[in-house]
Specification:
The chain is α+β, with helices and mostly antiparallel strands. The chain has helices spanning 2-31, 75-85, 204-210, 265-312; strands at 39-53, 58-73, 89-99, 105-116, 129-130, 133-134, 153-157, 162-174, 177-191, 213-225, 230-243, 253-263.
């Protein structure tokens, strides 16, 4: 019985030893993915910002500019693309809505972001766009890959429609969460006017006829939880200018927007709590279960060897046989 139990334990030890790397290196890359029906909303604010008054074409100080960003998973579009792409795809329909202190729209820029659900690499398909302009993204946007590494990544800038490195700057603690800090600087770049303009009757085409152009620069910062690849906090030092043309009345340039854009406090708290819970699910498959199975395999192997060694130990010696005394002859 001991030998039979030892063989069963040995078989279980081999099973769990094999399951440990399979779970981490085979199952996890296939099971961990961004769900296609995700919905996210984020509110950012730039306090004491500078904003262009299109009525007078002068830049004014305002107490606050609010940016509302939404990302909505388009399940129908993702399923359609998956049929030809041959892999799990996520389609996010995003909207960046900017409003001034009076609540009126400053700009709104829609975009469609299509990416691989597992690796977060961009997937090029019909419908990929920014503000109605077809684009072909390189690099990530909004989310880093699962198990983010301490290295630079290529990051897509929706304003400039270009990709450039976003640099890893170090590891920090953000409200009890270990994060990787990334930073990207986009130099002054000529960018298109938004299709939705804040003043009725003004369109990108009518502005273009005046010869006035729009320029943009930003310093983009993200604090990313590396296990999930989700940013827990982000901010931008953002500047926009209008340059040249008859629209400015002879001036070389005027500030259209300048401000330090930061996530609103209630959204920071919500994001940190959400990422903490998602982090445990990823760690379950990448750390807790693989290491647990490996330790269990070692314990089962040790127990199997112990039973085998104990079963082979010779038993206690049999008691010596006492011979009967022979009768003495007379």
């Amino acid at each position: 019985m001991r030998r039979k139990a030892g063989l069963i334990l040995l078989a279980l030890a081999v099973f769990f030893a094999a399951l440990s790397p399979l779970l981490r290196w085979y199952a996890f890359p296939r099971l961990a993915k961004v769900p296609p029906n995700t919905y996210q909303a984020m509110v950012l604010e730039a306090k004491d910002a500078t904003l262009l008054d299109y009525g007078t074409m002068t830049a004014k100080k305002v107490p606050k500019v609010t940016i509302v960003q939404t990302l909505k998973g388009n399940v129908q579009a993702s399923e359609k693309i998956e049929r030809t792409a041959g892999r799990d795809v996520v389609v996010w329909d995003g909207l960046s809505y900017v409003q001034g202190p009076d609540g009126k729209m400053v700009s709104e820029i829609p975009e469609r972001y299509i990416f691989d659900a597992h690796s977060q690499e961009p997937v090029h398909a019909t419908g990929e766009m920014v503000d109605g302009d077809p684009v072909s993204r390189d690099g990530i946007e909004f989310k880093w890959p699962f198990l983010t590494q301490k290295r630079d990544y290529e990051y897509f800038d929706a304003q400039a429609r270009t990709t450039s490195p976003i640099h890893y700057k170090g590891t920090q603690d953000f409200r009890g969460v270990k994060v990787y800090y990334f930073e990207q600087t986009v130099p002054w770049t000529k960018v298109p006017f938004p299709e939705a303009m804040p003043v009725q009757g003004i369109t990108p085409e009518s502005v273009a006829r005046t010869g006035t152009t729009r320029w943009y620069t930003t310093v983009r910062r993200f604090w990313v939880e590396p296990v999930t690849g989700a940013p827990v906090y982000g901010e931008e030092i953002h500047k926009e200018e209008l340059r040249g043309g008859t629209l400015l009345g002879g001036r070389d340039k005027v500030t259209a927007f300048a401000g330090h854009v930061k996530m609103r406090e209630d959204y920071i708290e919500h994001t940190v709590n959400l990422v903490k819970s998602q982090r445990q699910l990823v760690l379950l498959m990448t750390s807790y279960l693989p290491w647990g199975f490996l330790i269990l395999a070692v314990l089962l192997l040790s127990l199997a060897l112990y039973l085998e060694a104990h079963g082979r130990r010779p038993g206690d010696p049999a008691p010596a046989r006492v011979s009967e005394p022979e009768p003495v002859s007379a």
